[in-house]
Model the fold of this input.
Amino acid sequence: MDNIRILSNDDVDNLLTVSECIPIIDNLFANLDKTQMPPKVYMNVPHGDFRSMPAVVDKTAGIKWASLNISEPGKINIFAKVLINDTETGKLLAIMDAELLTAIRTAAVTGVATNHLARTDSTTAAFVGCGNQTRRQIEAVSAVRDLEAIFLYDLDPERAEMLACEFDNAHVFHSLEVCLREADIVTTLTPSRKGFIQYEWLKEAVHINAVGADAEGKRELDVSVLNNMGLIVYDEWEQCSHSGEIQYLNEVARKPVSFPLGEIVRKNLQYNNSNRTMGTLFDATGLAIEDVATARYIYEKVK
Done:
């Protein structure tokens, strides 16, 4: 174990912020030709699943081993480690706790997508589900848009109230429909297996970050949302088509325009014009390349 960095969640918290991670992820998606990523492997168990996520990013190979446990309805526990190796020497460089790393890199991807897709004049953002990742997601959206108001909804109102105390401009809603009605940006972070968000509740030019659906059978958006989006952007087609919201595209009457996030970033395609009237959707399932790129950045910072 000589010279191998062993980093805890507290270490990660001290070394990396969401706003710092956003350009790391943006650069990653602009250079996907320097990456390799086999499909994520799932092993289902009664109260959740285990996931093996290997990847190579430039000169770093790594893997995340994670478990997702739903101990009670609406409460998700995530346990994870990331290991990274140098591809030139094969040497193991670091072993890191990955619960916080996952939350930060997931939020950073939301920040990248929101920056490219949400209208530049967006000032209100709703967050559905107020679990462990939501504070970081708020930080990410706030880093790329000047938010005047943050709207929060959770099946457990007390959890939403606790999160709201951390932000001066946060408001808790007891009606999901009312929470969404005036939101320019909507981010969903639940373990739902039923599409519960209806298109009729949303603003015409809304941007949606669909984060919760990251495994087969999970969904947060009613088919009416998919039917009415002007543009759908996904992090990676194979994962999303099996695990994200777009696994339900077979239910859609009209096939929407879709692009990978990498193409949007690499070509700097901008769908954030303040005159845009179509809705946009980012379907995020979480990629191993994000974990590896973020872990290598942290390792280099420690060095």
User: Anything to note?
Assistant: The longest strand covers residues 60-72. The chain has a mean pLDDT of 95. Residues 99-117 form the longest helix (19 residues). Residues 110 and 280 are 13 Å apart (CA to CA).
